[in-house]
Automatic annotation (TrEMBL):
Descriptive protein name: Alpha/beta hydrolase
All copies of domain BD-FAE-like, residue ranges: 31-219
Xref: InterPro entries: AB_hydrolase_fold (IPR029058), BD-FAE-like_dom (IPR049492), GDXG_lipolytic_enzyme (IPR050300)
Keyword line: Hydrolase
Region described as Disordered: spans on this chain: 1-23
Top-rank taxon, per record: Bacteria
A GO molecular-function annotation: hydrolase activity
Species of origin: Micromonospora costi
Length: 275
């Protein structure tokens, strides 16, 4: 029988080299992985996990992904944040935790891994709900983000609410629907926050039953129409979880997209305008 794509969620991974805190709450932390080899300092890659923002999913399930990226020479941080179903999770703390973590982690990672983290804005790799959070941070704090790789992102919260993704996940995050809390959707929904200024690559599987690929198609079209530097890569034979599985057929496309963001990402001259 074929392997269950969800196996990656519980697959063991090497322990991280460090864990750092970006706030006082136990979930305001990130696990750091040292890059393999002795190469020059590189931009930090911040992995933002998915799980429809729910407490039962945490950063540990991105261990195989993060370990594989570190093996390729990237310094990696697996970001944790408060989630729905636990005290303090949901609106607005899930979003503000991610924003604070992305802002603080380059400094914290550079201190923990001297000489391995370049003094530039990090590249964000977000999967599913983590893809939403990565796009949210890129839209609201573009100077803090060097690029975004959004893997099957929940990039349209209104549409995700309409489709009732994961049985009310968006309503749990924002407290209700767009008619009840239009201001929350306006502040949190990537579809309403375009253009996305940092360079962005969206990858989505054609067999994805958790987040319909049409959400990414429509989001990328909308973002392009507003001038975003954004690319959509559709993998027709990929489902939802293959995008975070280094053993999947989709993995080379993920690595290629991340490398393209790395190659495009240059140190920002403090004297020049932010991108």
């Amino acid at each position: 029988m074929p392997a269950d794509p969800r196996d990656v969620l519980t697959r063991p991974a090497p322990e991280p080299a460090h864990t750092v805190a970006y706030g006082d709450h136990p979930d305001q932390v990130a696990d750091l992985r040292e890059p393999a080899g002795e190469g020059p300092a590189r931009p930090l890659v911040v992995v933002v996990h998915g799980g429809f923002w729910r407490a039962e999913y945490d950063r540990r399930h991105t261990g195989p992904l993060a370990a594989a990226l570190a093996a390729l020479g990237h310094p990696v941080a697996q970001l944790e944040y408060r989630r729905t179903g636990q005290p303090g999770g949901g609106w607005p703390n899930t979003l503000t935790d991610t924003l604070t973590g992305v802002t603080e982690l380059p400094r914290l990672a550079a201190a923990a891994m001297p000489g391995r983290v370049a003094p530039v804005a990090p590249i964000l790799v977000g999967h599913s709900a983590g893809g939403h959070l990565a796009l949210y941070v890129a839209a609201t704090a573009p100077a803090a983000v060097g690029g975004v790789l959004a893997l099957a992102p929940v990039a349209d919260l209104v549409e995700a609410y309409r489709r009732d993704l994961d049985g009310g996940a968006v309503a749990a995050l924002l407290g209700g629907g767009p008619e009840e809390f239009p201001e929350r959707y306006a502040a949190a929904d990537p579809r309403m926050l375009v253009p996305i200024r940092p360079r962005t690559v969206v990858i989505h599987g054609g067999l994805d039953h958790q987040v319909h690929p049409g959400i990414s198609r429509d989001f990328v079209a909308s973002a392009r129409a507003t001038g975003s530097d954004i690319t959509l890569v559709e993998l027709n034979e990929c489902e939802h979880f293959g995008l975070i599985d280094p053993e999947s057929a989709a993995w080379p496309a993920v690595v290629e997209a991340l490398q393209s963001l790395h190659d495009d990402h240059h140190p920002i001259d403090a004297a020049s305008p932010s991108r």
